[in-house]
Amino acid sequence: xxxxxxxxxxPVNHVNAVIKxxxxxxxxxxxxxxFPTPSPSQYGYVDECIQSWIQIESWTQINHNxxxxxxxxxxxxxxxxxxxxxxxxxxxSIVRKExxxxxxxxxxxxxxxxxxxxxxxxxxxxxxxxxxxxxDNNEFPLKKDFPVYFKPxxxxxxLHVKKCHDxxxxxxxxxxxxxxxxxxxxxxxxxxxxxxxNALAETEARGKLVSVEGYTINGKWxxxxxxGRILATNNPxxxxxxxxxxxxxxxxxxxxxxADIHQVLGVQWGPTHTEIMIDGNDLEFIELNLRFAxxxxxxxxxxxxxxxxxxxxxxxxxxxxxxxxxTCNSVALARYYQPPFNKNIYEDVSLPKHPSVIMSxxxxxxxxxxxxxxxxxxxxxxxxxxxxxxENIVNVINDIDKKVxxxxxxxxxxxxxxxxxxxxxxV
Length: 427
Hints:
The protein has three domains: about 5-100, Rossmann fold (3-Layer(aba) Sandwich); about 130-205, Dna Ligase, domain 1 (2-Layer Sandwich), CATH 3.30.1490; about 210-425, ATP-grasp fold, B domain (D-amino Acid Aminotransferase, Chain A, domain 1, 2-Layer Sandwich). Helix content is about 25%, strand content about 25%. The protein contains eleven helices and 20 strands. Helix 1 packs across helix 10.
């Protein structure tokens, strides 16, 4: 017997894996999406799991989409919802309010999605020391404040994030942002980023970047683990690898810091993904996402932790408490490759076989014209590996890098794909 309807909103990235888990746990799945049909991903096909697919025009049309949903089904039969997309969070919250599921309220979501408001709140509570400048209010950094990072007030995938070393570079980034009306090849990303045209500059946070994965139940945040980041030597805004779990002597301090941030920002329910910088013993907030982490964090956690991350996410979506056991006995790494060699078009991408590989896939498009330099979130392939120690997993991925072949050449020394391993020196 079905447990009722489970509503999936804009299935992208790891959400196909969530759909399979929802189906396994006995729910009927209804999807709302800006896409016309289900898309395969590295997590496979899910067509057979879905009872009904409802296409919407834009996630910015909240009232229209809610009415469409009510015309399509009795929303009282909805027992859970799930999304991993920032631009869908407000709609998700409104649906959950209608059916009585725990949620983050709309004003909380708005204040966290707006990077300037979020930063100001944390500064006021002494949880951040970064300076923030609202460029649309004619607030600009002084010479001594540089370098700074230019950011859209609402962003995604590091799009338009640029490190600026002086006021000329900042003004150029600001002008380019203001004249841009197309941000991404996905319409829902474009629609989301168009909802607010404001931009900010923030002083640079020094140290090593990590993300902290966790979840909140009735206002209490709990950790899943720390996700180490390996950045591109060529551009620190580009993430070339994730490593989980990332062990550090500061773990307890980090978890308390993240819990304090969630409390101050008023987060009440659901998975979260928080990025911070670690500089010696000091911690600095970068951003908080009111969703589960992107890329292949789902698979990294599932291949290393005792508990099933899918069960946690599905239960949270259904408003149910769940205790996640984050005990790990191995390490997993996800490596991503950017378009190499300053080319715009590629004919072939070949990934090697290796006993440590747990997943590999190509996402390059032979019909696509790639930009030079590549966009921060533009990748052509991904490889996930598993080992018993960090040292061993780095050796494995270094060996694999030599054997990733694009148009007959090894990608190993391509400037866009040289990884900075300094983050792994953090203890």
